[in-house]
């Protein structure tokens, strides 16, 4: 008998994820981003063994209490209510956004998605343009690789000396984050931010031809949303925007791998 899995969220990626796992699980997709009494009652009646929460936390309009049938919880970004329920309930919890294979594969889609975003919004070639990438994590590395191979001039800018010289070893120009703003005189460079924290003053955005912020909300700008510079674009969730099917299959692969791991643990007696 198939285990029951409820998938919550409105992201288009989830419909492809739902289809991909429906052969091995009895799935129910609920298109909402609000946890309320109606949703809770529907889930309780379905009695799922597996609950999948969306990447962004749900809006909570009633207490977040998982059904008694829930054995495994897949969670994206957590909020206080989700963390409290995880502490209260003795279940397997898997943060798919922390799955290394998913992170790297999604970074590849993000890099490819950015090129599409740039072509669509700038209507220019990437070749021979200068891109300053702030941050050199997985997304920063895949972006640098993609842009470099399209003929762009890539500069990596971070505070970490280790990451700076790692980037230099791959042939990229480097600049410390503290100095990169000082050297912007002719406004010819594009800035791509991948650092998930506020560090850029709104007035400093004018030093660049365009600022593309790929980090999650609230982005890199220090000032309020009312003072957003005209050359600033918050370009998040690029895989879901351009490649929802591929991105949904990545989520499915992460979930399937983890369920197979749990099944293997239980069959070998390690989970008891």
UniProtKB/TrEMBL annotation:
Coiled-coil stretches noted in the UniProt entry, renumbered to this chain: none
Source domain of life: Bacteria
One Pfam family linked to the record: 2-Hacid_dh_C
Domain named D-isomer specific 2-hydroxyacid dehydrogenase NAD-binding: residues: 122-183
Signal peptide (UniProt feature, chain positions): none
Gene Ontology MF terms in the entry: NAD binding
Name of the protein in its database record: Dipicolinate synthase subunit A
Source species: Psychrobacillus lasiicapitis
């Amino acid at each position: 008998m198939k285990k029951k899995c409820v998938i919550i969220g409105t992201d288009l990626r989830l419909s492809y994820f739902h289809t991909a796992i429906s052969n091995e699980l009895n799935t129910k997709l609920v298109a909402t981003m609000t946890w309320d009494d109606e949703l809770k009652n529907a889930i309780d009646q379905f009695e799922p063994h597996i609950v999948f929460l969306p990447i962004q936390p749900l809006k909570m309009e009633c207490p977040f209490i998982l059904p008694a049938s829930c054995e495994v919880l897949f969670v994206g970004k957590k909020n206080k209510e989700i963390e409290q329920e995880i502490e209260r309930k003795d279940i397997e919890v898997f943060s798919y956004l922390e799955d290394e294979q998913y992170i790297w594969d999604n970074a590849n889609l993000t890099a490819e998605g950015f090129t599409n975003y740039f072509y669509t919004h700038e209507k220019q070639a990437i070749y021979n343009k200068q891109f300053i990438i702030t941050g050199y994590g997985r997304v920063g590395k895949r972006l640098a690789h993609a842009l470099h191979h399209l003929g762009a001039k890539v500069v990596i800018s971070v505070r970490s000396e280790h990451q700076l010289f790692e980037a230099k070893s791959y042939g990229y120009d480097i600049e410390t984050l503290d100095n990169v703003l000082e050297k912007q005189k002719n406004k010819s460079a594009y800035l791509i931010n991948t650092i998930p924290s506020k560090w850029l003053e709104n007035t400093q955005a004018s030093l660049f031809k365009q600022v593309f912020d790929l980090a999650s909300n609230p982005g890199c700008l220090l000032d309020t949303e009312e003072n957003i510079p005209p050359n600033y674009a918050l370009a998040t969730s690029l895989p879901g925007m351009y490649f929802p099917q591929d991105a949904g299959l990545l989520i499915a692969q992460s979930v399937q791998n983890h369920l197979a791991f749990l099944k293997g643990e239980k069959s070998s007696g390690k989970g008891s």
